[in-house]
């Protein structure tokens, strides 16, 4: 018998989707008060049950999603550093003057380059031993 995935993932997905679309959300609300929220929980639960019947190995999928996340974080961090410096984007929440010229460029590019190099470095030993294919 296939195992169903964790119900916490369905709940966290429902909270994220409901907040993104500004739907009423929360397990403290009745289903008729937060229909879309509970529908998202049901859809995520049914999707995870359907995945249980496939040949997808969940640990391998988790590993590859972490690798993809590690690769995507570098350009996203670089964009965030550029965005925090733009008053057109952030309005009154723009980074203060003492942060902008030196710190944001040096610190932001340092963090981006380190995270960009860390993803392949973490993956290489696993790929070399054949633990992850």
- The helix-and-strand class reads mainly alpha
**Strand portion, in percent?**
under 5%
Mean of pLDDT: 78
Q: Helix segment count?
A: 5
Q: In terms of per-residue confidence, which ranges show pLDDT below 50 for 5 or more consecutive residues?
A: none
How much helix, percentage-wise, in residues? Answer: over 70%
What is the total tally of β strands? 0
Radius of gyration from CA coordinates: 20 Å
Along the chain, the helix and strand elements come as HHHHH
Instruction: Give the total of domains.
Output: 2
Whole-Å distance between the termini? Answer: 25 Å
| Shape designation | flat
How would a textbook summarize the main sheet?
none
Q: Would you write up a description of this structure?
A:
The chain is mainly alpha-helical and 133 residues long. The chain folds into two domains: 7-52, no CATH class; 58-129, no CATH class. Helix content is 71%, strand content 0%. The protein has five helices and no strands. Helix 1 (7-21) crosses helix 2 (35-52) and helix 3 runs antiparallel to helix 5 (100-129). It is flat. It starts with 6 loop residues before the first helix and ends with a helix. The model has no long low-confidence stretch (mean pLDDT 78).
List the keywords.
transmembrane helix; flat; membrane; mainly alpha; transmembrane; 133 residues; Divalent metal cation transporter
Quick gist of this model?
This protein is mainly alpha-helical.
């Amino acid at each position: 018998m296939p195992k169903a995935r964790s119900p916490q993932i369905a709940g966290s997905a429902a909270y994220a989707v409901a907040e993104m679309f500004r739907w009423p959300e929360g397990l403290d609300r009745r289903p008729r008060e937060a229909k879309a929220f509970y529908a998202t929980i049901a859809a995520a639960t049914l999707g995870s049950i359907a995945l249980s019947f496939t040949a997808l190995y969940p640990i391998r999928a988790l590993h590859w999603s972490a690798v993809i996340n590690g690769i995507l974080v570098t350009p996203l961090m670089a964009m965030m550093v550029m965005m925090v410096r733009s008053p057109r984007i952030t309005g009154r929440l723009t980074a203060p003057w003492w942060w902008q010229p030196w710190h944001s460029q040096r610190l932001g590019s340092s963090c981006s380059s380190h995270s960009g190099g860390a993803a392949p470095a973490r993956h290489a030993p696993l790929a070399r031993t054949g633990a992850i294919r």
